[in-house]
Amino acid sequence: MTWDWSAVSAFLPYFRDGLLVTLQALVLGSLISFGLGLVWALSARARARWVRWPVGVLTEFVRNTPLLVQLFFLFYVLPEWGLTFSALVTGVAGIGLHYSTYTMQVYRAGIEAVPAGQWEAATALSLPRRRTWTAVILPQAVRRVVPALGNYVIAMLKDTPLLMAITVLEMLGRARLFSQQNFRFTEPLTVIGVAFVVISYLASLLLRALERRLAH
User: Fold this and answer.
1) What range(s) does the ABC transmembrane type-1 domain occupy (predicted)?
2) How many domains is the chain built from?
3) Interatomic CA distance for residues 24 and 85, integer angstroms
4) What is the pTM of this model?
5) pLDDT one-digit tens code per residue, 93-105
6) What CATH number is given to the structural domain containing 77?
7) Of 198, 193, 81, 203, residue with least CA distance to 153
């Protein structure tokens, strides 16, 4: 099999469309996982047992089942219950929900790493509970967990090809479509392999810059 640059050129429109979908899934999935993970982490520390227990059961179940199974459930089972969404929306929600159970643990570790003196100082100043969290605890916790959250962004990027299983044509899906139509596999798969490396590297650079900024 010889390398054919004309095949690369022909694949670029497919690649562009797939790249856009991959980045949409990555960005939106990351936002959902970060936001929902924080909700889980705070709910797990709630005083009411009726809040803590369901959150614990849900997050353990999601974290201990494969993402692919969850995507199939959301895409094929929920419509039977009257809940129908587009493939991309389902995929983004699935990735965000799945990884929120991991970012929850990251937030939990960051919160527990805040020195006890910070809690005591907030109490001594008679700060309301909400103010204690938003002004004292969470800003310090988030600064500590940015590197770990960044690792999950890279992990989410590498899991986006799973969306192809529910008909989302991200980069791998577009490469497969092009290969089936043109009987060329080496060029499209190589292009998306390089793209994953480049995107991962750029994401790591951005996260390092954010980490340095938050450290000051």
Assistant:
1) 15-207
2) 1
3) 16
4) 0.89
5) 999 999 999 999 9
6) 1.10.3720.10
7) 203
